Amino acid sequence: MLGTGILRGLKETARNVIGSFREKDRLPTVMYPEETVKTKENFRTFPFLVYDGDHAMPGLRCVSCRICEKECPPQCIFIIQERDENNKAVKHPRVFDIDFSVCMQCGICAEVCPFDAIKMDNIYELAGEDRFTGLLVDKHRLAKSNHYYHQIKPTEANEVDGRLAEDKRKAEEAAKAKAAAAAAKAAPPPTAAT
Amino acid sequence: MIPGVSIEEKTDPLQGQILEVSMGPHHPSTHGVFRMDVKLDGERIVSLKPVFGYLHRNHEKIAEDVSYLGSIPYTDRLDYLCSLTNNWAYCLAVEKLSGFEIPERAEYIRVIVGELTRLVNHTCLMGFFVQDLGAMGTPLMYAFREREKILDLFEGLTGARMMCNYMRFGGVRCDLPVGWIDEVKKVIAAFPRFLDEFESLLTQNEILIARAQGVGVLSKELAINAGITGPCLRASGVGHDLRKVDAYSIYSRFDFKVPIGAHGDCYDRFMIRLLEMRESLKILDQAIAALPSGQIIDPKAKSRGLRPKAGEAYGRIEAPKGELGFYLISEGGPSPYRYRVRPPSLINLTVLEDMCLGGTVADAIATLGSIDIVLGEVDR
């Protein structure tokens, strides 16, 4: 009979309307900005630079190797390496800028960084008044502590910390072995001396 | 004179008046910036020329300039409703080029996210399609509500809701988070209820039937000759699905059917998607049950600084919209010499005129909606 299809559809609509008062599944919206949905741990927006310790500038993990700058698909990272008074390169960035208006939040910089120095943030309320300088973020604004990283991404940060500690231990062992070998070489064994 | 609308009057004493109307590029039914140059005899369409390119972003040339890895986030932006299948097709082409092997677990993860993407795309399409027919809001919002649940899954796994950037050459970027599979199971278990409701809401609705049945008919012969793929081809009665034909990845292990239409009209194209979603759910159930543990990426594969040996490869998959292929030529350098995308939306658009001729303007809107185009992919 003509019209039964429409009536059946209206029944569905009514079920959804009434259901929206009872079931969370049928009304999943929240009243933003008063309420927000909790983001997932993996959620990523823009990159930030991780520093260890209490002070941002000496503590940056970045050694200014510029791999992220080369790999960044839209080329939004700009790095100049720091130099000391003898014009010798120092493992620290003098300038580290990311243009957030160009960044497409792909996360490739964090993926390719061999020093775990750049990671993806999860802030998303970034609207500003200034279009040009406001979104061109320098190293001071990018630097965030390892503590913050642990807060936003606990699983990933623990993994990274474990890996870094392991690397450090290996490096120390290698250095020790190297020192021992050098010492053994410097002082020839007594059998050879006689 | 309204900006963007050109009206040309041609008077023919025998034909009456032929009116040329430029529909688009900012017409809400064109799903983006797409223009149809339509000549009308009264309300009937006598000629229709699709005009596209308004969203051209130079994707192919950019990809020839950046590294192989750097192209993956750009492929997300081709068909922005289903970024994961775009990633997959591109990675498949690069894997063919450089001969990486994909571990079992990665293959299963790819199938799971790929089929979830198909659900996302088809729910969206059905919502948009009925929206084009005038069902303002309600069905689209129901569809979006279900899509959100899957997007939440993507957010938990890949970090982004739409621009996932998840697959890598020889596997996937990161392993499944703890408890993710349980969430997927929950979503899949609730999904048939939505499909049932959506079906009883729409499929027997007299208005939808009147607007969609017998409209925009695409014959079997024309569909084959024009290279139409995906649900549009299957709605015309051709049982061609790359998941069965190529059996790429591990699709040969799953038990699923390929729904086929009979008339090739808008209603068939709409129904095919509903049925395909049910088949996708079957594949998802099987894939989750059989998900093995192990590596997620080929240890030999490297993403950064990849320089495949000289050669060429074509990787294609059954994307939700049809056959999505990437054709790559390598000269051994850090970026491909030639990078070509075969977008299903663009090829499916080529028969738009044949489907619309003789119909009314409103039918053209319905036909365009049922083809399922995303302009990011058409224009690249």
Q: Would you report the number of β strands of chain B?
A: 9
- H/I helix tally of chain B: 15
Task: Indicate the mean pLDDT of chain A.
Answer: 84
Report Rg of chain A: 27 Å
Distance between the termini of chain A: 115 Å
What radius of gyration of chain B results from the CA coordinates? 21 Å
Pair of chains with the largest interface and how many residues each contributes: A-B, 34 and 41 residues
Low-confidence stretches of chain A: none
Q: Which percent range fits the helix content of chain B?
A: 40-55%
- Overall mean pLDDT score of chain B? 87
**Strand coverage percent of chain A:** 15-25%
Distance between the termini of chain B: 32 Å
Spell out the helices and strands of chain B N to C.
Answer: EEEEHHHHHEEHHHHHHEEEHHHH
Question: How would you describe this structure to a colleague?
Answer:
The complex is a heterodimer of chains A (194) and B (380). By secondary structure, chain A is α+β, with helices and mostly antiparallel strands. Chain A is 42% helix and 16% strand. Chain A is built from eight helices and six strands, in the order H-E-H-H-E-E-H-E-E-H-E-H-H-H. Chain A has helices spanning 4-22, 56-59, 67-71, 108-112, 139-142, 146-152, 154-186, 190-193, and strands at 47-51, 77-83, 89-99, 118-120, 136-137, 143-145. Chain A has a three-stranded mixed β-sheet. The longest helix of chain A has 33 residues, at 154-186. In chain A, 20% of the residues are buried. The mean pLDDT of chain A is 84. With 380 residues, chain B is α+β, with helices and mostly antiparallel strands. Chain B is built from 15 helices and nine strands. A four-stranded antiparallel β-sheet of chain B has the order 1-2-3-4. In chain B, helix 5 packs antiparallel against helix 6 and helix 6 (180-202) runs antiparallel to helix 11. The longest helix of chain B is centred in the first third of the chain and has 29 residues, at 104-132. The mean pLDDT of chain B is 87. The A-B interface holds A 2-6, 8-9, 11-13, 15-16, 25-26, 28, 39-44, 67, 71-73, 104-108, 111-112, 120, 155 and B 66-67, 69-74, 76, 138, 142, 145, 148-149, 152, 155-160, 163, 165, 173-174, 177-178, 190, 197, 200-209, 303-304.
